[in-house]
């Protein structure tokens, strides 16, 4: 029987692997080398740094992170030691799409603009970025795409260079992995030069990785009113975030854009399936059952006399209230990690039935495009 050490905040695992493995649940940030000496596998999230200091001379043969990102895994070290590692690409892409929808609609309300009058620059068009593009186009925004690796592989048609995004887009949203070196380095992709080129009416959104946007430069740009606003879900130096910066933001949340229960279930399932295939455990098609449901799965939305932005805001805020996440963080910054670990129930929009009343402007078609995955 294999031994498995698991981050205790990975959901839906209790009771699943115990019949076929010795399972030890521990806080992700507290997992030590001693805990792994006789472990065969490790299930992580982003708070466990899987490097030589943690893994050297242990028995670990397999690491699964139930997240899209894997910059917390020293992949070169793992590869050199023959440790198989896997992530969960795309697991929470629809959750981030939901977050961006709520963010855009909040910005419409706060800054008093219409979606079709704005352009969105999507930097990074992978699993998440593609969902954001589909969302934005369904909402009526003009969308520009920037993804140098894809442009090199597929040709430049359909993509623009970063300077074009900077000059032409009202809102710029980042959906890139954190690459600290190389031709496609994304650390400080939004650096001092980036911010000096932005128009003063630009709004920045970052839900990718904290160091993609230089937080000190962003803070200065906001203080000097060189940009119109910003939304951050990810931060440099998490969980010790910059409170002064937080107080300048339109929306500030504790790295939860991908934290829908649907996305969490996907990430757990992908990790279990990968573990099963590696150790031949017979769970290659496992998926969690009984994902929690909200009390009210029927959303009755009256469209009469309302603008598109007002209707969409009401729909999305009924399924996910981004302002509530913002309010919780501002009220208790010291509990950044606790807010992540104890994140309240959130389901994606397709878990609900949306009943549109007095739909004189065909909001139903727009909505079907938004929730058709």
Describe the model.
- By secondary structure, the protein is of the alpha/beta class.
- Helix content is 36%, strand content 15%.
- The protein contains 15 helices and 13 strands.
- Helix 3 links the parallel strand 4 (62-65) and strand 5.
- Helix 4 (93-111) packs parallel to helix 5, helix 4 packs across helix 12 and helix 5 packs antiparallel against helix 15.
- The mean pLDDT is 95.
Describe the structure using short key phrases.
373 residues; five-stranded parallel β-sheet
Lateral strand order in the biggest sheet: 7-6-8-9-10-11
Helix content: 25-40%
Termini separation (Å)?
39 Å
Radius of gyration: 21 Å
The secondary structure category is alpha/beta
- SS elements, strand count: 13
What string gives the helices and strands in order? EEHEHEHEHEHEHHEHEHEHEHEHHHEH
Strand content: 15-25%
For the biggest sheet, the summary is:
6 strands, parallel
Give the assembly state of these chains.
single chain
Shape: globular
Low-confidence residue ranges: none
Mean of the pLDDT scores?
95
**Number of helices in the DSSP assignment:** 15
Topology, pairings included?
Blueprint: E1 2-7, E2 21-26, H1 33-36, E3 41-44, H2 52-55, E4 62-65, H3 75-80, E5 84-86, H4 93-111, E6 119-123, H5 127-139, E7 142-146, H6 148-154, H7 162-168, E8 171-174, H8 192-197, E9 203-206, H9 215-223, E10 229-232, H10 243-246, E11 251-252, H11 261-279, E12 298-302, H12 308-319, H13 322-331, H14 336-341, E13 353-357, H15 363-371
Parallel strand pairs: 1-2, 1-3, 3-4, 4-5, 6-7, 6-8, 8-9, 9-10, 10-11, 12-13
């Amino acid at each position: 029987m294999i031994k498995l050490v698991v981050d205790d905040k990975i959901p839906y695992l209790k009771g699943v692997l115990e019949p076929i493995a010795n399972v030890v649940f521990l806080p992700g940030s507290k997992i030590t080398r001693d805990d792994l000496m006789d472990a065969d596998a490790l299930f992580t999230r982003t708070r466990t740094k899987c490097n030589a200091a943690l893994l050297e001379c242990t028995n670990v043969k397999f690491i699964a992170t139930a997240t899209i990102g894997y910059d917390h895994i020293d992949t070169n070290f793992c590869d050199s030691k023959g440790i198989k590692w896997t992530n969960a690409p795309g697991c929470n892409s629809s959750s981030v799409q939901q977050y961006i929808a709520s963010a855009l609609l909040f910005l419409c309300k706060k800054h008093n603009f219409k979606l079709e009058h704005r352009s969105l620059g999507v930097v990074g068009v992978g699993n998440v970025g593609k969902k954001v593009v589909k969302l934005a186009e369904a909402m009526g925004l003009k969308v520009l795409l920037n993804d140098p690796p894809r442009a090199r592989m597929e040709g430049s048609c359909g993509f623009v260079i970063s300077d074009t995004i900077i000059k032409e887009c009202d809102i710029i949203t980042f959906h890139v992995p954190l690459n600290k070196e190389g031709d496609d380095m994304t650390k400080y992709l939004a650096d001092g030069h980036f911010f000096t080129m932005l128009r003063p009416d630009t709004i920045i959104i970052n839900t990718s990785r904290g160091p993609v946007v230089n937080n000190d430069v962003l803070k200065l740009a906001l203080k000097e009113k060189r940009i119109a606003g910003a939304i951050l879900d990810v931060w440099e130096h998490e969980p010790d975030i910059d409170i002064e910066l937080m107080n300048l933001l339109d929306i500030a949340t504790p790295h939860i854009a991908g934290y829908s229960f649907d996305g969490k279930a996907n990430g757990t399932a992908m990790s279990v399936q990968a573990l099963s295939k590696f150790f031949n455990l017979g769970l290659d098609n496992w998926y969690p059952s009984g994902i929690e449901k909200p009390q009210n799965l029927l959303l009755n939305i009256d469209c009469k006399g309302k603008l598109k932005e007002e209707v969409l805001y009401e729909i999305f805020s009924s399924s996910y209230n981004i302002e509530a996440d913002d309010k919780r963080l501002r009220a208790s910054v010291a509990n950044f990690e606790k807010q992540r670990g104890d994140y309240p129930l959130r389901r994606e929009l397709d878990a609900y039935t949306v009943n549109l009343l007095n739909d004189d402007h065909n909001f139903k078609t727009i909505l079907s495009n938004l929730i058709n995955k």
